[in-house]
Fold this sequence. Notes:
Strand content: over 45%
Number of domains: 1
CATH class: Mainly Beta
Mean pLDDT: 88
Largest sheet: 12 strands, antiparallel
Amino acid sequence: MKYVLFILCNIVVLAAEDSAEDLLKSVRHPSLLNSWVKMSGTINYKNKKTGKRISAPIQLRGRFSRLEMKMQILINKSERFLLAQDFADGFDGSSTLNEKKAKDPSKSLASMMIKPDDFTFSFLYWTFKKELGTERIKTFKCRILLLSHPKEDEQVKIWISHKMKAVLKVEWFKGDKFLRRMEFKSTHTIKSSVDSKLRFSIVKEAEISSKGWRSIIKFKEIGGNVLPEGKKVPEGLFLKD
């Protein structure tokens, strides 16, 4: 059986005609294999108005299970975040720890208009408001759901693949004002070293943008595995210094 995992979005295959609530539940509580991943690549930012460009290396290390996911991201070899999401605890189960500040603020995650929550998808646990209809993204028919932040004046539209139950696009709004957009461009599949039938796919390239700017996250070196019963993640997967 093929198990599929997006680091930036999780996939679970369900029935063809789910209610909006069931559809949302499928991405909020993904059925993941015990697995790990280590990726490295580059973030490229461009501001069309000013011509400003930023390029910085990124590393992502992750540990996943049916109960939670834990990720560590390293930007420009200095700025470091530890991110976690407990699926059962939903909105209250998201946590972000800035383990190390950026040595060069001009190449920080924030300078490229990216938020740590973009990696954990904590917005999936905002309050469901309504379904907005359907739309195709490439060959995929997507259902569009509207969610609202439980504490702030912010909304998010989520495009979920009708077939795969995968989040393919996200747009943030404050009232009627468009804020930013995130889209997933390509994926990479990793097979278990023990059983090739067990595999998971991860986002290889993602684009985050708004009016006048765009950031592209592209991973080139990708490694990972499904953890056999009783096995731990490789020593040193998460940085501790």
